[in-house]
Amino acid sequence: MGKGKDLFGKYNDLAKANGVGSEDCKYASVLFQALLMVGERKVFELLEEADESGKKLALEYSNDHGGEEAIPSNIVLV
User: Fold this and answer.
1) Residues contacting 3, CB < 8 A, separation 6+
2) Secondary structure tally for the chain: helices H, strands E
3) What is the pLDDT of residue 69?
4) For residues 52 and 65, which has the higher predicted lDDT (pLDDT)?
5) Which residues pair with 74 in a beta bridge?
6) Rounded mean pLDDT of 7-23?
7) How many Cα atoms occupy the beta-carbon half-sphere of 48 within 13 Å?
8) For residue 34, which of 78, 2, 74 has the smallest C-alpha distance?
9) In whole angstroms, what is the distance from residue 40 CA to residue 31 CA?
10) What separation in angstroms does the CA of 26 have from each of 2, 12, 22, 34, 43?
């Protein structure tokens, strides 16, 4: 689990270094939202899997959210 936690920290450090609006900051936001949705253990596992496969985590949105604001429903590797 240490590698996933390290990756999470790395992406957050990159976001801080590159600032708001950067791709790194957007990705850190995705990771934080994923953390809120499924918890740190699952996010760290997914980060490790993404790192090994050369992918990234992304939020998936359902079409039936009923309101104007889209709400993420799942975390996927892309």
Assistant:
1) 44, 47, 48, 51
2) 3, 2
3) 78
4) 52
5) 60
6) 97
7) 12
8) 74
9) 10
10) 23, 10, 6, 12, 16
Give dist(CA 47, CA 58) in Å, integer: 11
Which residues are 60's β-sheet partners?
74
Enter the tokens of residue 38: 């499924």
> Is this model's pTM higher than 0.85 or not?
yes
Q: Classify residue 70 by its DSSP letter.
A: -
Contact 77, 58 (CB under 8 A): yes
Residue 19 Ramachandran class (φ > 0 left, ψ -120 to 50 alpha, else beta): left
Distance CA 59, CA 16 (A): 21
Identify the band that residue 10 occupies on the pLDDT scale cut at 50, 70 and 90: very high
Given a cut of 70, is residue 64 above it in pLDDT? no
